[in-house]
Write a structure and sequence with these properties.
The protein is an alpha/beta fold and 156 residues long. The chain is built from 4 helices and 6 strands; from the N terminus they run αβββαβββαα.
């Protein structure tokens, strides 16, 4: 999800909730303690220099049960971040404390923000000798194609 998308959603919702990939909700007394612009300048295993930039939200919860983050408050935090950090309309990455700090992608299902799992990947598969997996085909699909070319069907 990009920054412009969350801004649009926050203008239309009454409450904010985040759901972890396992279906568990982030406690409702969470705070967004950081909104940041994270730049990553790196070289991949194939020798290509790359740049990535994401907007980072850090979610945190503590024993502060008297406060809830409402959409208008998060919008104000985002607006301040946009003006002070010159944020571009980049993808959002969410940090949340589990057993260790975890990073998630962000999606929305119409009522809740979904923290989505992220995966590592080799960005230079062609240079590392890793071939892309071939698409799997169902035998039933192959039989359908063959059944169209029966003797007398005119396909040959």
């Amino acid at each position: 999800m990009k920054l412009s998308q969350i801004i649009k959603i926050l203008k239309d919702v009454e409450n904010i909730s985040f759901k972890l990939p396992n279906g568990e909700l982030v406690p409702s007394h969470f705070h967004v303690t950081e909104v940041g612009n994270v730049r990553k300048h790196f070289i991949d295993c194939g020798g290509t220099i790359r740049n990535e930039e994401v907007i980072n939200f850090q979610l945190w919860n503590e024993n502060d049960y008297d406060h809830r983050l409402h959409p208008e408050k998060l919008l104000a935090i985002i607006e301040l971040s946009e003006s002070q950090l010159n944020l571009a309309d980049n993808e959002i990455e969410v940090e949340y404390q589990g057993d260790t700090i975890r990073k998630f992608g962000l999606d929305f299902n119409g009522t809740e923000f979904l923290l989505t799992n992220k995966q590592t990947d080799c960005l230079a598969k062609d240079k590392c000798g890793i071939s892309e997996p071939k698409p799997k085909k169902n035998l039933s699909d192959l039989n359908k194609k063959n059944s169209e070319c029966l003797p007398g069907s005119g396909c040959c």
